[in-house]
Amino acid sequence: MQPIPYLFFKGDCAEAMRLYGRVFGAEPEILSAEAAPEDVRRQMGDAASGVMHAAVRVGDGWLFASDDMSANPPPPMEGSSIALAFPDDAETRRVWDGLAEGGSVRMPLEPTFFSPLFGTLTDRFGTRWMLMTEMKES
Amino acid sequence: MAVIPYIHFDGRCAEALTAYAAIFGSPEPELSRYGDTPGATFDDAGAARVMHGEVMLDGAPLYASDFPPGIPADPQQGMSVTVTMTEVARGAQIHAGLMDGGTEIQPFGETFFSPGFGMLKDRFGTHWIIMTLPAGE
After folding, report:
1. Mean pLDDT computed over A42-53
2. Helix B13-24 to helix B88-99 angle, to the nearest 10 degrees?
3. Which domains does chain B have, with CATH numbers?
């Protein structure tokens, strides 16, 4: 069982998941809160709009997400990142460029002692990514 | 390529990953420290902080670190680590183990989409979603 990052957005979950789908070449599954059973929707209150659950395939893994439409939504993603390791620099750069548009670079893509190319960024939806090229076994 | 949640702590990474290993019944976590960095010049407290840690959760990795010495730490927010399992009893056991000193967000129980589901924030600040998905669904 691979642990799956579950991200919370404030109304732009679907837009974010569609971007991730384009970057990673997969169609996101998006389940609107309107699809929930009526009694569940009544309990949800303000949360009964937006995305209830979404999933997108990333490589061999998954990314899960939803909108938190409650009156006190959580602050943006902090204190954690989504880590991805690619086999070569070209793929690392391609994904970096796809996610970086409109976002902010935290650590620019650079060689480090543990990876030939490593960087971190916050995308325009507030999601934090940690991208690297796998170290070649020598 | 796997998608791996990478979570950050403010000095309690080793303690947290060791607790997670005990709760999931995993081997001891692998930990490397900032003091192991080539050319490191941290004081003892900084050198002991975890630069990179890995703990296995039912056979797959969770990554974690402490914020680097001198860098202000953000508390974890806006992301939960989702763990899925086939047995409701196992889900209840993991939820209870993580709840020790933690804060309940949604008590573990049956929902319309899962026979065993719960959400919590543990005492180290990590948010978890525990979801039972019976085999074959």
Report:
1. 79
2. 150
3. 6-66 (3.10.180.10), 81-132 (3.30.720.110)
Cβ–Cβ below 8 Å for B78 and A78? yes
* Both tokens assigned to B23: 């709760």
Closest CA in chain A for residue B78 = A77
As its CATH architecture, domain A6-67 has Roll (3.10)
The pLDDT, as a whole number, for residue A2 is 86
Choose the CATH number for A82-133 among 3.30.720.110, 3.30.70.560, 3.40.630.30, 3.40.980.10. Answer: 3.30.720.110
Give B-chain residues touching A87 at CB under 8 angstroms: 1
Per-residue pLDDT reduced to its tens digit, B31-85: 999 999 888 888 988 999 999 999 999 989 999 999 998 888 888 888 999 999 9
Q: Residue B136: what pLDDT?
A: 61
pLDDT in tens, B88-99: 999 999 999 999
Strands B79-85 and B60-66: unpaired
What are φ and ψ of residue B133, in 5° steps?
-125, 100
Q: Find chain A residues with C-beta within 8 A of B52's C-beta.
A: 114
